[in-house]
Amino acid sequence: MSETYLPHEVQYSSARHQAESAISGMWLFLATEVLFFGALFLTWIYSRHWNQAGFDAGAQHTNLAIGTVNTVILLASSFVYSAGVAFIEAGNTRRLVQCAAAAWLLGLAFLILKFGVEWRDDFAKHLFPGADFAIHGPLGGSARIFFEFYFLGTALHGLHMVGGLVLVGWIIWRARRAEFSPALHTPVIVVGLYWSFVDIVWIVLYPLLYLVGRGP
Amino acid sequence: MTLRLRRLWLALALLLLAIEFGASFLPMDRAMRPLLLIPAVLMVATVGTVFMEVGRGPAVVRLFAVAGLLWLTILLGLGSLDPLTRTDYPVQSTSPQ
Question: Which of A7, A54, A120, A213 has the fewest CB atoms within 10 Å around its CB?
């Protein structure tokens, strides 16, 4: 089918032009997000450099099992969503719905583990850097800085995850209404880019929070 | 890219995660432990090239991706320059003994 028969908004010369603009726009947005999270990673470099012992003492109190399982969950979620993109490009809407639903459920599992189990456990152990912070002694101040980074980093990532769940849910809803086809499925691609980017942020956060400070 | 190939890339990413996880238990000097980020960087490259398909689409996509990495490098590089290169010399106390 010729592209001239595909619907597109009036400001674009063709459906292909519209699709490329949307995909490029998402990549530009993600480039700004790289700098947003880059500032967070810089605080980690700076804070750990000046407070290594205490920073690592704080990291040893994180829940390595949940952090690792959550990393596997997000990698699987990114994979299964990208498979859904391949399925809609082949014209298989049913498979797209299944893949996006699986990605959504994996994302929800991540949030439940992170905030429903891990954060709850952290608060119960008084690891939130408040008045009753659990780590005392000469390393207490630096461990407090670590947990300030931990809670800020995971909260910012979690907010992005919630946004991603809303977007993936929107894709599922539209796919179930058969609004996508091999020729017209740009929203599926654009949301997939965002979803995988949120996975990338976690891939970097995981060693910063759970591994670097944890010696043998 | 076929589903089978995507599965292989997922397996590679999980292998990198296992390496990263296992290496974290090795005895390493505290200053060297940020090297544990190397598998993470490879995992990021895998997700970016395979799941996000940065190689597809218009050329401006690659431009934005490279620009993001370039500015991140400048941000982290310039930001780290002072803490990673400054030498701290002990200062004698001037308070009366």
Answer: A7
Three-state secondary structure call for residue A78: helix
The angle, 0 to 180 degrees and rounded to 10, between the axes of the packed helices A15-50 and A140-176 is: 170
Euclidean distance between CA atoms A2 and A6, whole angstroms: 8
* Cα distances (angstroms) measured from residue A36 to each of A92, A161, B16, B75: 36, 15, 26, 10
**Chain A residues within 8 A of B53 when measuring between CB atoms:** 82
In b/e form, how buried is each residue of A16-36, taking b as 16+ CB within 10 angstroms? Answer: eebbbbbbbebbbebbebbee
Question: What are A29's two structure tokens?
Answer: 């947005």
* Record: contact A193-B52, CB cut-off 8 A: yes
Rounded Cα distance, A145 and B50, in Å: 36
For chain B, domain boundaries: 1-51, 57-82
- Say whether residue A105 is in contact with chain B using an 8 A CB cutoff: no
Contacts of residue B7 in chain A, CB cutoff 8 Å?
A: 79
Query: How many CB atoms are closer than 10 A to CB A71?
Result: 25
Spatial distance between the Cα atoms of A205 and B3, rounded to a whole number of angstroms:
28
- State the DSSP code for B90: P
Interface confidence (ipTM) of the complex: 0.90
* A26 Cβ contact partners less than 8 Å away, ≥ 6 residues apart: A190, A193, A194
Domains of chain A by start residue, with CATH: 39-211 (1.20.120.80)
Query: What would the pLDDT profile of A153-167 be if each residue is shown by its tens digit?
Result: 999 999 999 999 999
Residue A83 has its nearest CB partner, among B3, B13, B80, at: B3
For A7-30, the pLDDT digits (tens) are 788 888 888 888 899 999 999 999
pTM of the shown model: 0.92
Residue position matching structure tokens 């949301």: A191
Which residue is closest to A49 within chain B, CA to CA? B83
